[in-house]
Amino acid sequence: LSSKSFPPANLLQSLLQLILEGNVDMGFLLEFISIMQTLVLHHPPWQQFTIVSYYMGILQCSNCRKGSVSLFQSLARSCVYDEEPCHQPSNQQLSISELKPFYRLLLKYFFDLFEAELEALNKSCYENTNYGRSRTIPPSVLANFFLEYSDVMTNPVGVLLDCVLQATRALVKKPNDRDFCETANVLHGILGVVVEYRLLAKRLRGRSLSGRAWDDLQFYIPLCCQDYNQEEIEMLFKLMPSPWLQMFTAHAIYKQICYNNGIEISENCFSLHQIISSYLIALGRLGSCRKVVVKDPKGKKMGQWPWPEPLRPSLNLIGDRQRHMEALTILAEQNLPLVAKRSSSLEIKETKTG
Prior knowledge:
The chain is mostly helical. It contains 14 helices and no strands.
């Protein structure tokens, strides 16, 4: 492979078809993935829209001809739900459990590709901010998969979210199962990249972070998690590599808890004032203000990239900062009397000691 030549798409697709049908060994699959990774180095999809079409033409089942999105969904469902693949394997003796290791590695390639596209978008965001370049979003396979409509949660995102939630529950039931762990981590990673990509794309366009897509996401997540126990919810957050996705998910589940308990909370965008003046009141009424130990989840967190801001959209305080912070402190003391009493007792002890 070189930067001047493209391997024929039909040739690479025929190699992929052999993998999908289980007619090759693991060494063949690893060599194919190595070729595809080298292809990203020499011909990244963010260079031109025609290159994105080139990748989309390769990454599909040549028997079904339903496109790359259909192949991705088929791989994910096969790994999570043990569903039969979209194609009929030529080797009828192969079971889905024997094909899963191949499918997991293909999903891992999708994840690596999407992550590279996120880095490219992040670089565009940085160059736009620091060098005044045009607000153009580079082409990507990810956008073609999941962001067909910029302000709507597309069906592929819904399918991915279903698989993520199911993989999380499976891992809770069998925490020591290596295959379940790999599947859950890859799917969580892809969902995290999709969320981070959408946020950066909105920022590059100068749009608000809110929108129907987030409303749909915040409605769908608690709906799917309403019968989750504490261990399953903890695992869900532990596996999320995207801090923004953690925040949106926590906000969605928390709102549902409040609604179930007849507690109204503000519908405004996230802010420090909302957390103190609205969330703490609700937490106090729910009686859930207790001391907890937070463990650092293992794994790589998204968001810290080689380029500085504008990675994370800032959460601004409006008005006079000092006066605003004093008001927040008063609200916190009013809503958390236990904390106020403890701080007062500490001051008394310090006075006596002095």
